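seq:
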Amino acid sequence: MKEVSITNKDVEYVAHLARLTLNENETEKMTQELSAIIDFANKLSELDTDNVEATAHVLDLKNVFRKDVVQDSYDREEILKNAPTHDEACFKVPKIVE
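struct:
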């Protein structure tokens, strides 16, 4: 893998695109920090991953959505009897928008 190095010019270009104004010290600091990140990424690419199974996530996640199937629900009258005010089919709430 080709090693990438970050220069002050790269940082100034990215800062320009991000509409950031960096002074000379900030540019130098950002160059060092980005270079450290790139160096670490390059070091990771040196790892032998030939026998490592590709994963999309480190945890064994499963879809928890249930199938969209029509089924019996709660009895409307039972639910409405707990409401402070209601009509035949709905809860009544105070009007909050004029």
